[in-house]
Amino acid sequence: MKLTSRAGGGNWPPSSFRRDLLPIPSKYYKGQGLKLSGGGEWKNALCPLHHDTRPSLLVHLVSGAFRCMACQKHGGDVLSFHMQRYGLKFREAAKQLGAWGTRT
Ligand SMILES: [Zn+2]
Fold it and tell me: What pLDDT score was predicted for residue 3?
């Protein structure tokens, strides 16, 4: 029997994904048309993930994490938000956000 335990054989996260290229959360959320209000690092906004009538969404301007108090959608970064808002897969969302590196 052969032991083939090569490290790095997994493909998650994909090596093309460049977390460091994700947009800055504050810029990203403003670019998404969210009107951010409130003090501190957590901001309130109308939630674009459901038909929101009052600001139910909380977004964190440093980490990009978000949580909606009404529809319960949540995630840990802008990539997760982008996937949920536009129904994208990880790779598509990363590409749209410019965080999918291509080797040159
Ligand atoms: Zn919501």
Answer: 55
Residue 1 pLDDT: 55
Cα of 96 vs centre of ligand 1, distance in Å, is 22
For residue range 93-102, what is the model confidence (pLDDT) as tens digits? 999 999 998 6
Give the distance (Å) from ligand 1 centre to CA of residue 92: 22
Give the domains, in start order, of the chain with CATH numbers. Answer: 19-96 (3.90.580.10)
Judge contact between 57 and 72, C-beta under 8 A: no
The Cα 54–Cα 45 span in angstroms is 8
Going from the Cα of 1 to the center of ligand 1, the distance in angstroms, rounded, reads: 53
